[in-house]
Amino acid sequence: MGFEAVEFESEGATLRGRLYWPSGGGGSSRPMVVMTHGLSATIGMVSDRYAEVYQAAGLAVLLYDHRNFGASDGEPRFQLSNFLQMRGYRDAISFVATLDGVDPERIAIWGDSMSGRVALSVAAVDERVRVLVVQVPACGSGPAPECSDAALARARELYLDDRVYAPLADEGEAVPVVSSDQIHAPSILKPITAYRWFVDYGGRPEMGWENQASRAVDPDGSTVHPGCLVPGITAAVMMMVSPTDEILGASPAVAREVYERISSSKEWVEIAGGHFGLLYYPSELFDEASARQRDFLVRELSVAEESR
């Protein structure tokens, strides 16, 4: 069925991605899934395969590269910012809500790893999100903190603020995302499984992936832990977690703690394979994960059988 290239503006930069229409084109009042990838990855590194599964089930999908990464513009290049990524989701939702054939009352967002963390926060402060799917979300390595009402209000205020905050200053120099030698070339992600996946999938020149990233100095009060925000979620939530997740910042126990604070309709799914198992395509784990997510999205977004 394919896709069309699209772009939209966010924080003074053009973000680029792919718009997947289900069979029959835009149609009328289609539900939409807004997707973006995890830490430093790009569109073609397996998230596109998830988009194809949802497209085949009758869902429209917007999959885009984060600001500063892949095909999207933005400076400093390869800079990671939870705050700017939240506002990227915000602007992506605003973009698809204006498209002919999209039902603005049936918008879902999807995130993996770091973008899973970000998507949890977005769903908590953006009432347009009806459904949320996150897989192996990077909710941290330690207990989710309690937050004051003032901190929550500040996070919401910054999310909705129309001012452009980018570009942001870096906390430090760029470092490798992954490395096979943690003694001489320490990286952001330590496990060898991270190195293998990023090299396997990002190593192809057409992916536009670079093995480097820096962290931004985010605006004060903008990066509240998602565990503080999630009580505000009204969307239906699927959280897919691996009990053997090897990434320090994606502790399954912390993800469970965050999940328990969600008061809306929710579903907890455990999957084997560690942090990267469901990012290998083709594979049985990919088939299992994408099918569970597809069925949840179809049910919660009320996708009619005849539209598929």
Question: What would you note in describing this structure?
Answer:
The chain has an eight-stranded mixed beta sheet with strand order 1-2-4-3-6-7-9-10, with helices on both faces. The model has no long low-confidence stretch (mean pLDDT 95). It has one domain (4-168, 225-307): Alpha/Beta hydrolase fold, catalytic domain (Rossmann fold, 3-Layer(aba) Sandwich). A hairpin with a 2-residue loop joins strand 1 and strand 2 (13-20). Helix 2 (82-97) crosses helix 3. By secondary structure, it is an alpha/beta fold. The chain contains eight helices and ten strands. It is globular, with a radius of gyration of 18 Å. The two termini are 12 Å apart. It has helices at 47-56, 82-97, 114-125, 149-160, 192-202, 226-229, 252-260, 284-300; strands spanning 4-10, 13-20, 30-36, 60-64, 79-80, 102-112, 129-135, 214-215, 236-241, 266-270. 30% of the residues lie in helices and 19% in strands.
Task: State the end-to-end distance.
Answer: 12 Å
How many β strands by DSSP?
10
Which architecture name does CATH use? 3-Layer(aba) Sandwich
Helix-strand category: alpha/beta
How many domains comprise the coordinates?
A: 1
State the CATH class.
Alpha Beta
Q: Strand order, biggest sheet?
A: 1-2-4-3-6-7-9-10
Q: Biggest β-sheet: count, sense, barrel?
A: 8 strands, mixed
Here the CATH topology equals Rossmann fold
CATH homologous superfamily classification: Alpha/Beta hydrolase fold, catalytic domain
How much of the sequence lies in strands comes to 15-25%
If you average the pLDDT, what whole number results? 95
- Treating each run of at least 4 consecutive H or I residues as one helix, how many helices? 8
